[in-house]
Amino acid sequence: MRRVAVASFIGTAIEFYDFYVYGTAAALVLNQAFFPTLDPVNATLASLSTYAVAFVARPLGSVIFGHFGDRVGRKSVLVVSLLLMGLSTALVGLLPGYATLGLWAPVLLVALRFLQGIGLGGEWGGAALLAVEHAPRKRRGLYAAFPQLGPSVGFFAATGVFWALSEGLDDAAFRSWGWRVPFLLSFLLVGVGLFVRLRISETPVFARVMKAQEASRVPTLDVLRRHPRELLLGTGGMIVAYCLFYTATTYCLSYATGPLGVGRSTMLALSMVACLFLAGGTWLAATRSDGAGRRRLVLTGAGLAAVWGLVLFPLLDTRAPVLIALALGGALFCMGVVYGPMGAFLPELFGTKVRYSGASLAYNLGGVLGGAVSPLIATRLQSSFGSASVGWFVTAMALVSLACVAGLPETRERALG
After folding, report:
1. Residues 6+ positions from 216 with CB-CB distance below 8 Å
2. What CA–CA distance (Å, rounded) separates 415 from 417?
3. Which of 91, 121, 139, 152 shows the smallest number of beta carbons within 10 Å?
């Protein structure tokens, strides 16, 4: 179990590092590197739109990798998803900008971002199942906490690398070549991830399905036919987690370093502090879910998020570093309370034959609705109605998730066989 926990944690940490590196760059520099002919607001929207492309691709990745994960096995699919995600990320670091390639630069950027999304679409479901299907029934929440910590560590590492470069380089060097370094580091991280993942075994639950020759022929269709309620409500339950994260990180980073005039290095450092709150909320809720129940804790997190949405931007608009850290940290803590139990909750909603496809689809469709559109909507709301309107948007998304999770059953006592 230690090896499984480490493998699921390291894999998700690396893949989310890759994903968040792009988000940080989109907020800070990609608008100027790839869309220099647009005015500042539209350049930011264009940059965030390329960021959103991966969210559209993630459900497709869920279908592709979920199909083979439910038919061939969890382990082999996770290796392929890691390779696809890591190499497409590293290639962004080698991609010339608009000044060199013209319109081909943003076109190729979108293509690589799309491949990133497909890779990550297959990652989370497999990593969560790797932990949950190996774990004893009474400790599934505990072991699922390890892949759920991957985003916290991945985001912390991605932000930390950008912060170090921002501190060590002048603005011209950072915008010329410094921003590429975090992407190129992915070459090294892929090697580490492959070494770890190739040493793990297939999950015993899925091995029994294969032995009995009971694998689903078309898992995605079986999910749509037999589990439409779980898929729909699970998707809705994930919306608030994505909305909180990408509003508090990608959008708030762009907003604070732009209209608010907060220094880039300051905001990156404050984002790293806030990420500790995410890790704390994730671990606390995931481990407590074995006793208190997944559903109850997710409902608690969504309720807290509905309140914090109204607090987030008044604190942010003070420009005071301590209050900015509190604003971001509170939002990410609420996100962690929702996100932590989801590592066990979503897989437990679906049967073994379709678990990879079902859990991945719910997770990534929630990303389209909560993650892809949140920075775009927030940018338009802020420019038209002020920052308070963005907070109300976050609260509305939290209430949607609250209603969806209320319609789901408790799952911690379910057998996975």
Report:
1. 70, 71, 222, 353, 354
2. 6
3. 139
Q: What residues contact residue 101 under an 8 Å CB cut-off, 6+ apart? A: 108
In this structure, the number of other CB atoms found within 10 A of the CB of residue 255 comes to: 24
User: Rounded to whole angstroms, how far apart are CA atoms 150 and 132?
Assistant: 15
Buried b (16+ CB within 10 A) or exposed e, 21-51: bbbbbbbbbbbbbbbeeeeeeebbbbbbbbb
pLDDT value, residue 210: 65
**Paired tokens of 392:** 């109300």
Angle between helices 2-28 and 186-197 (to 10 degrees): 160
Q: What angle do CA 122, 124, 125 make, to 5 degrees?
A: 75
Of residues 277, 283, 373, the one with CA closest to residue 332: 277
DSSP per-residue string spanning 308-319: HHHHHHHHHTT-
Q: Quote the CA–CA distance of 29 and 19 in Å, as a whole number.
A: 16
Domains (range + CATH), the chain: 2-406 (1.20.1250.20)
Q: How many CB atoms lie within 10 A of CB 265?
A: 15
Alpha-helix runs per DSSP H in 1-39: 2-28, 30-34
Q: Alpha carbon of 305 to those of 201, 276, 333: distances in Å?
A: 38, 17, 9
Helix (H) / strand (E) containing 300: helix 294-316
Contact 134, 77 (CB under 8 A): no
406/211 Cα distance (integer angstroms)? 37
Confidence at residue 214, expressed as pLDDT on a 0 to 100 scale: 66
The pTM assigned to this predicted structure is 0.87
Q: What are phi and psi of 361, to 5 degrees?
A: -65, -45
Q: Which residues of the chain, if any, have pLDDT below 50?
A: none
